[in-house]
Structure formats: structure tokens, C-alpha cells
Amino acid sequence: MKTRIISLSVLFVIACLMAGSVSAYVLLSPRRTWDSDPNVRVDSRGQSTITDGDLGRSRTRNAIVSSNAWNGSGAGTVVNATVASVAGWRLGDGIPMLNFRDPEGVCGGNCLAATFTGFFTQRSNGTFRIFDADIVTSTGRNWASAGEACSGTEFFIEGVMVHEVGHLLGLGHSNVSGATMFPTVSTCNNGPASTAADDEAAIRDLY
Prior knowledge:
CATH topology: Collagenase (Catalytic Domain)
CATH class: Alpha Beta
CATH superfamily: Collagenase (Catalytic Domain)
Helix content: 10-25%
CATH architecture: 3-Layer(aba) Sandwich
Radius of gyration: 15 Å
Low-confidence stretches: 6-22
Structural class: alpha/beta
Largest sheet: 3 strands, mixed
Number of domains: 1
Order of helices and strands: EEEHEEEEEEHEH
Number of strands: 10
Shape: globular
């Protein structure tokens, strides 16, 4: 079973799969980047269905900053992450957060997680600067981390969240099966936790 990973803008518009057959990766439109490496605040409450002894908090944080993911894609360090409270959750406040709940109530149906990507402004040189992006997680799914066995009905939190951080950094969905930014993932598949060549080309294009 494959389930869609959804990206949302502040207007709740689902990111479209617009990749062509030659240039597979897609950047969000308008093209946008952070001025400095964002520090994603990973929900210190953890995810209650994860039984790795840490509720997935540390493994999610470690996956986000891993050299197997965005920071190892050839553009240097592009993202940091810290396990911290998300009690002050507010969209557009300039603090990128990864919430293991869905306080906005937007992640239903086949959604595993969603990223709010609509917080950007135009720089004086005409380019666009991201000032916030926030991630929510479906509470209607069973989750696992790499620190436990997958039951066959669970989704790996690391791969899904590395995908969502790709949106946070300015990437859209790829049409390359096996890429981190491919829009669907099957149960017990943690492949998206490690970026593929297509993902790495995308992040180097931006950063």
C-alpha cells in the first residue's frame, strides 16, 4: 500500500506534481530559499505509536541532519534540527516546527504529513526568501522508527520527515520513483530517509 505525502501552502493548496520526463525534480514556485540554515524544532512529545524508547524524537532529528540526507547532498549544511517544545505552535511566526500532531486539522485521507510552505517574501534583488515553514503529522497512522521492527502496517517516521523537510527547504515533488521527494511511500519503506541523485541535484540547484 502506498500513501501520499502531501505538501500544503498557507492557503491549503496541495503541491502539484509537475515534473517532466527530462528534468525530474521540481522546485516550489516561485523559487525560494532560506537566508541561513533553518533550525527545525522537532516536537519533544514524540509520536505515541513509536516504540523505540524515545517515541521517535531523536531518530527524526538525526535523520533530518544526517549526511545521508539534505546535508550530504553536496550543498553543505542546509538544515539543522533540535528536539524542543512546539507548545508555541503558530504558522508564519518564523520558527520552523515539526509537529507530531496535526493542530491545523489538514492531514486526513491518504495524507501522512503536510508542510506549510507559503511563508516567503521577495528580496530587493527580486529573489524570494523563506521565513517560515511548518510540518504537521497525521494522527490516524501507525508509525515506526528505524529503532524498532516495522509491523507491516506502519510508516517510517524518518523517511517521511526527511521528505517533508525537502518541502521546507523549497523542493516540490519529483516524478522519479525512489527519490526522497517522490510523492508516495509504502509501509515499512524507509528509503526516503536517504536522498537520491535526483534530490541531490535539486538541493544543489537551490543552495
